[in-house]
Amino acid sequence: MSINRRKLLTTSAGLLAAGAFTGPFGLGRAFAQGAAPTYTPEEGASLRLLRWAPFVPAEEEAWLANTKKFTEATGVEVRVDKESWEDVRPKAAVAANVGSGPDMVMSWFDDPQQYPDKLVDLTELGTYLGEANGGWYEGIESYAKRDGKFIAMPLCAIGNAIVYRDSHMKAAGFSEFPKDTAGFLELCKGLQAKGTPAGFPHGKAVGDGNNYAHWLLWSHGGKMVDESGAVTINSPETLAAVNYAIELYKTFIPGTESWQDVNNNRAFLAGQVSLTANGVSVYYAAKKDPAMKEILDDMRSVNFPIGPVGESVELHQTSTLSVFAHTKFPEAAKAYIQFMYQADNMNAWIQGASAYCCQPLKAFASNPVWTADPFHAPYARASETLRPNGYAGPLGAASAGTMADYVLVDMFAEAVTGQSTAEEAITNAERRANRYYRV
Asked: What is the CATH number for 62?
């Protein structure tokens, strides 16, 4: 069954009239004006999408509901497979390099930069969507582009923020959350002394481990590479960051060196730690469980403290949506993406994600989810404030490979656990990074 632009627009308008998400901010505008691209699915097309396992079930439900609407509108069946966060990256890389498997993937950070020649060019659609929706947020867009072309579609930033127990903070002697890294260390010492410690992942956690490690580095003025891509990790600023991490680690609950993305959620909700960093998902996990009422009522969120660098610098988990070049149905895949980014569908997904997924396009910043709950506030500007992991150099195969190999995460883990001295850990990271950055 084929579909043209007129039918796609008519179907979408009907869905809006039938009561699909109809918020107060001009839904349907983007695809009702301008020269929208036309993608006619191939005869007999079907698609398979590999995506990450959800931490907010309603997010996945909204995505699947939009997918069902697409199938009803086009006749194109879309199979959605989900894998753990840690497994998406290797499975996507295998599919790209072998040339078989899923047609599309929701991947992490600059993963598409590792195999740009294995992906369908989405420049026409990416350019149109940006122009029709107030522009892409620069940080998210940079992950999806190579040499000025869209090799993927920017999908979302998953905001990361400090989550803590208010009563435990006060018991540790603080009336308000410290705004700088020095005060933050003192708070963590106080929490430990009271038997209510903090905990941050030093394990190979795709999201939380990378978010924490990059904040440690950047907040002290360190960076993996300079503007030209030359490795500059071996610096006084990095040494200061590592030494700070060593002191902070001393206040943590034991075992954080093996934590992955699920562990800090579980530890916080189990009452094992009083402070960690996470997406808004940990809040909603507590809300749906009556047994968590005491923790829920005591839970607060705040952005990461500011370090010696003097400004807020954070890495937020970022996801992109790519189409593999081996797909037999590239037009169907483009039609699917176009449909999912239509204003009513995109807003329904953002709403369903309950502040977990921050919009990639500026037109969706007025989604009411961001003001629906004060707990959402630290997550609301994730797309606007994120710094790409390849800072300060260009994104590409080197930045993607360095992150995928956990070079920065391992540097901190080696030092805080005493496996290496701070200087040795930095030298090891420098050596490993230079394998990817050859300038």
From this structure: 3.40.190.10
For position 31, what pLDDT does the model report?
40
- Burial bucket for residue 306 (CB in 10 Å: 0-12, 13-18, 19+): middle
Asked if residue 389 is part of any domain, the answer here is: no
- Tokens found for residue 190: 């106080």
Q: Give the separation between CA 375 and CA 35, rounded to whole angstroms.
A: 39
The 3-state secondary structure of 235-293 reads CHHHHHHHHHHHHHHCCECCCHHHCCCCHHHHHHHCCCCCEEEECCHHHHHHHCCHHHH
Question: Rounded distance, CA 247 to CA 320, Å?
Answer: 35
The reply to whether 201 and 154 lie within a common domain is: no
- The CA distance from 261 to 178, in Å, is 25
Domain of residue 51 covers 5-158+316-380
In a domain, 239, yes or no: yes
Across the range 393-413, mean pLDDT stands at 96
The stretch 72-98 carries a mean pLDDT of 96
Number of domains making up the chain: 2
Same domain, 418 and 366: no
Clarify whether residues 92 and 139 are in a common domain.
yes
What pLDDT, on the 0 to 100 scale, is given for residue 24?
30
330 and 309 together in one domain:
no
Residue 27 pLDDT > 80, yes or no?
no
Q: Which residue in the block uniquely carries the two structure tokens 């009556």?
A: 290
pLDDT at 1 over 60: no
Helices and strands (DSSP H and E) totals, the chain: 18, 10
Interval 153-171 mean pLDDT: 97
Same domain, yes or no, for 172 and 320?
no
Omega before residue 198 within 30° of 0, cis? no
Q: How far apart are CA 198 and CA 183, in angstroms?
A: 14
Q: Are residues 195 and 150 in the same domain?
A: no
> pLDDT (tens digit, 9 = 90+) per residue, 360-392?
999 999 999 999 999 999 999 999 999 999 999
Residues 279 and 361 in one domain: no
Residues 29 and 57 grouped into a single domain: yes
Q: How many CB atoms lie within 10 A of CB 98?
A: 10
pLDDT in tens, 165-219: 999 999 999 999 999 999 999 999 999 999 999 999 999 999 999 999 999 999 9
Write down the pLDDT at residue 35: 81
Q: What is the pTM of this model?
A: 0.87
Closest CA to 57 of 356, 365, 382: 356
Residue tagged 């993608």 (tokens): 39
Host H or E run for residue 132: helix 123-132
Q: What average pLDDT does the structure give for the chain?
A: 92
> How far from each other are the two terminal CA atoms of the chain, in whole angstroms?
50
Distances (CA, A) of 277 to 183, 200, 259, 301: 17, 7, 13, 9
